[in-house]
Design goal:
17-stranded mixed β-sheet, globular, single chain, Diaminopimelate Epimerase, Chain A, domain 1, alpha+beta
């Protein structure tokens, strides 16, 4: 039987980005890819990202977070999920730790400070964007990642072309379009996610700038598919838009699930502010893991 059986979980969302949280502090447990897929397969614990809370690895941090996508792969960062964890560690009666000040989480992508912005709203410092081709990473040495040579469709009339690329702990490709609703992202997303130019796959976004301080965004997430919101994609889109001088360094990014306020500060850090919602709590049934291998 899986050691995760009968463990409590929280089902939350950040702008509809489906998040499940399991608290593994005080244990040596680690979620295996097959276990993550099994948890995602149950409607009650279905997630876009699973946030596993582990004991801190680094002094003065509050926890180490492992982040899993629906397909069991690990993600470097998840802004919406990080906000949900912040709520759990401040307000959930079981998971909360003493204090009410800012929190500092460690992830594969680095340290993420989080502060409360309202009753159920939090601000995450997502760190510095990575803009060099080998940091994102890309297969080919593009010197200017504000746009790269990539297109789908006929060479003389491509459906999409010249995306901006940014890493916000995860690689992102942002295609600039006049109407984000005019494309079947569920069809083209998987092909672009797995394009050979992205050696670690990529999150694929369609972005429409409607004002100097507002971007519409739809996202196909690496390892998760279409989601209602993706925080790191919203950050990447704002950075890419500002680099192309399409917006300023602060904008509201509107996703299918709602709005995130994104700021690319003068210290080069990108912050994301948005809400969280607790949907329910439950325990992971042992039957979930019967076929996990």
């Amino acid at each position: 039987m899986s050691a995760l059986a009968n463990r409590r979980f929280l089902k939350m969302n950040g702008l509809g980005n489906e998040i499940v949280i399991v608290d593994l502090r005080g244990t040596k447990l680690k979620v295996a890819p097959a276990e993550a897929r099994a948890i995602a397969a149950d409607p009650r614990s279905r997630f876009d990202q699973l946030m596993a809370i582990h004991d801190p690895r680094t002094p003065d941090t509050d926890a180490f977070l492992r982040i899993y996508n629906t397909d069991g792969s690990e993600s470097g960062a998840c802004g919406n999920g990080t906000r949900c964890v912040a709520w759990a560690m401040r307000d959930d009666p079981v998971m909360a730790q003493p204090g009410d000040g800012p929190l500092l989480f460690e992830t594969r992508a680095g340290l993420l400070p989080v502060s409360r912005d309202g009753d159920r709203s939090f601000k995450v410092d997502m760190g510095r964007p990575l803009l060099r081709w080998d940091e994102i990473p890309l297969r080919d040495p593009f010197q200017d990642t504000r746009y790269i040579e990539l297109q789908i469709g006929p060479i003389d009339a491509p459906i999409l072309h010249s995306p901006s690329t940014v890493s916000m702990g995860n690689p992102h490709a942002i295609f600039w379009v006049d109407d984000v609703a005019a494309y079947d992202l569920s069809r083209i997303g998987p092909m672009l996610e797995n394009h050979p130019i992205f050696p670690e796959r990529a999150n694929i976004s369609l972005a429409q700038v409607v004002a100097p301080d507002r971007i519409l965004l739809r996202v196909w997430e690496r390892g998760a598919g279409l989601t209602k919101a993706c925080g790191s994609a919203a950050c990447a889109a704002l950075v890419a838009a500002a680099r192309k001088k399409l917006t300023g360094r602060e904008a509201t990014v509107t996703l299918p699930g709602g709005d995130l306020l994104i700021e690319w500060r003068e210290d080069d850090h990108v912050t994301m502010t948005g809400p969280v919602e607790l949907e329910w709590e439950g325990v992971l049934s042992p039957s979930l893991f019967a076929g996990a291998a």
